[in-house]
Amino acid sequence: MAGIRKPYQGVWNIIRFNRHFYIFYFLVVILLFVTLRLLWGGSLAAWICVLISLPVAISLLISHWVYDRSDLYLLSWLDTLVIKPGDTLVNINAGFDETSETIRQKYPQARMEVFDFYNETRHTEPSIRRARRAYPPYPGTRIISTSKIPLDDHVADFVFLILSAHEIRKEQERLEFFREVRRVTKPMGRVVVVEHLRDGANFLAYTIGAFHFFSKNNWMLVFREAGFKIEKVIKTTPFISTFILK
């Protein structure tokens, strides 16, 4: 599994998939530097531009730690789950799948289904469109809607939602989706939800970008309304929370 990801793949993907933001930010800093240099001189202008650039630099450094230096994509935190040969694993992504190959290698004797609920009319992030063009889907991935998972009732031993469920921006749609996840999960099965949270740590890391995430209270409300209970919460760095639902 060590050869699947490249050393700086995570942070580089952030930059190239969100290049519109970084290009705009870079141009604003240059324009500001030129303007301030004319008004106050080069030294002060440089210091002001450095201070303005710090939040972006910090967010990229933290992202490198989270996506490239932690064990997030090694999935070692899955070792707390008892996954047996023959279990049915369901991995659901939002148009960009970085985990199915690792899950397949980690549990080669399990049966695996991979679904993609990305809908370009509902899930409008330009970064996802770019990611889909850059990375082909995992072989056998099936396109689904958030309202219907094409499985019978109670067939999945484990359902994985790794950094994908927050792309369902409307709360009612998110609730209906988790009810559908509950339908296909066995009574003794588990659902694994991995997310950034809209909390203090992520605000420090991503400033206003943290508004793209949902709060822990919001997730707990959705889980409860869909019929789940939180069995365990695992922290992979202070910025990533994994909810094990039963």
From TrEMBL:
InterPro entries: Methyltransf_11, SAM-dependent_MTases_sf
Keyword hit for Transferase: yes
Spans traversing the lipid bilayer: 21-39, 45-67
Family matches, as Pfam families: Methyltransf_11
UniProt GO MF annotations: S-adenosylmethionine-dependent methyltransferase activity
Stretches assigned to coiled coil: none
SUPFAM superfamilies listed in its UniProt record: S-adenosyl-L-methionine-dependent methyltransferases (SSF53335)
Domain Methyltransferase type, residue spans: 128-193
Name of the protein: Methyltransferase
Record-level GO BP terms: methylation
Presence of keyword GTP-binding: no
Alphabetic keyword roster: Membrane, Methyltransferase, Transferase, Transmembrane, Transmembrane helix
Source domain of life: Bacteria
